[in-house]
Design brief:
CATH class of the largest domain: Mainly Beta
CATH architecture of the largest domain: Beta Barrel
Mean pLDDT: 87
Largest sheet: 10 strands, antiparallel
Helix content: 10-25%
Number of strands: 19
Low-confidence stretches: 2-22
Strand content: 35-45%
Order of helices and strands: HEEEEEEHEEEEEEEEEEHEEE
Oligomer: single chain
Radius of gyration: 22 Å
CATH topology of the largest domain: Lipocalin
Shape: elongated
């Protein structure tokens, strides 16, 4: 009987230890919105939020990357988005993006309950619910370009039946296919800053529009100064915070 009681106590001890180890922290967790003002977020378009230890916030509103600052005092929390990329997205996505940024700006308190982060306004209403999510890693992830800067302060999708890829290897080398030619380069990171070196390519010739796309992509790639990771997304940004290249994780073949 004593052995049985001891075994039960040990089981409870392990359960309690597991619960303590799985505690979710507000800071440093990659949060993904599931509801905004009691409305479910659009499928496959989930805004995100990260609060770092330097009182900065960053993430995606579902269309554009944003950054800003926060203040915290106990359960009191203010979130202030300050800068954003300037991509245009479908109306539904833009409406949701504006609603998400509105929720951030109206937040006065927070709670973490049931593994979720609830943002609360001055009247005590829960205006957003977010859950933890894992972000893809910059290194050794097979990335494929979703859009790139077209050199005219706008982004363009990849030409049909072409694919642009990139792999940032842990040894500091970068390689991929730029839509026509294979390319190689090097890169360095420091925090979320990134520097991409000179690019060498093979010498294949393709259709004029494909070659033009390739040149614009490689120029955008080398202009990157910072990067931001999201759920299955990688954004390379320029010195003016403009989006230069957006990658997504390549689908398994």
């Amino acid at each position: 009987m004593k052995k049985l009681i001891l075994s039960i106590l040990l089981i409870f001890a392990f359960m309690l230890a597991g619960c303590a180890g799985s505690k979710i922290d507000l800071l440093g967790t990659n949060w993904q919105a599931t509801t905004l003002y009691s409305l479910s977020v659009l499928e496959n378009v989930s805004p995100t939020l990260v609060l770092d230890a330097d009182n900065k916030i960053s993430g995606s509103d579902g269309c554009n990357r944003y950054s800003g600052i926060y203040t915290i005092n106990g359960d009191e929390l203010t979130l202030t988005p300050q800068t954003s990329t300037m991509m245009a997205c479908p109306d539904k996505v833009m409406t949701q993006a504006n609603l998400f940024l509105k929720a951030l700006s109206e937040t006065t308190k927070y709670e973490i309950k049931g593994g979720q982060l609830n943002l609360i306004d001055k009247d005590g209403n829960r205006i957003a619910t977010l859950t933890p999510t894992a972000y893809a890693s910059l290194e050794d992830t097979p990335w494929v370009v979703e859009s790139y800067n077209n050199g005219k302060q706008a982004t363009a999708g990849v030409i049909k039946d072409t694919q642009i890829t990139a792999v940032f290897k842990k040894d500091g080398t970068l390689s991929g296919n730029s839509g026509c030619n294979e390319y190689n380069s090097t890169y360095k990171t420091d925090g979320n800053t990134i520097t991409i070196g000179a690019v060498a390519t093979t010498r294949m010739a393709c259709a004029e529009d494909v070659m033009n796309q390739e040149q614009l992509y490689l120029a955008a790639l080398q202009g990157a100064t910072t990067y931001q990771l999201g759920e299955n997304l990688l954004d390379l940004l320029g010195s003016d915070n403009a989006l230069l290249v957006r990658f997504k994780v390549a689908s398994p073949e």
